[in-house]
Write a structure and sequence with these properties.
mainly alpha
Amino acid sequence: MSKKHHDVRILTHRAFAVFLTVFLISDVGRVYASRNLEIIAQQGESSPSDATEAEALKLMQEGLQLQKQGSKESLLAARKKYEAALVLWQKLGNKTGQAVNLLSIGRIYSDLGEKQKALQFFNQALPLYRAVGNRSGEATTLNNIGLVYDDLGEKQKALEFYNQALPLLRAVGHKAGEAITLNSIGSVYDDLGEKQKALEFYNQALPLYRAVGDKAGEATTLNSIGLVYSSLGENQKALQFFNQALPLRRAVGDRGGEATTLNNIGGATQV
């Protein structure tokens, strides 16, 4: 597989990790917004702890918006927001809030290339998620640890953590997360040259992406399957998958992905 194709896939994995972080932050927001509304309705006013929770959630949402911009400056600014929110959750003794912010800070260190720092934060988040029985958060953290090891080229370590995440995601019925993890496992096997194993996991991910209506994930997986067939010299099979990926790339406005798929079609056609 060419470096270009590998880089596109790694960027996609990073987007997946941000997606999972967004899911968790949104989930925390829903839980605390609901609880605070009940308290306000009962008391007619908010308590100091409610105000602290509200400020922590505000900082988290601001951090998330900055994180999604993706520039170095915005990532550094997002990290400051998450760090400030972390202090508030620690003050409240709230393990879930602490875990989400530790995870988010770790993601930023990872995106900035500071992989060992990222692992430090992920490894702090993991026992907190386990302590509160949050299997979605635990799975997300395991996925992020796997992603760091994947980026570092430690493929067997990456598989170890992805394979810990997978049953947790299945247990909570998180199909989108399961698809992401299956895709990541397929990618590792692809990098290791185990093409049939890669196909096995990509083909498990594909119907899950379709089930949750994730066209971008579906397109990425179709493109990855096409690349595997191309590497095996089965160019007609590769074209079938590239041609399925192309309209999906266009439908979600992924011009970079569209260009990559068109390039893959061109390569498969010329051989």
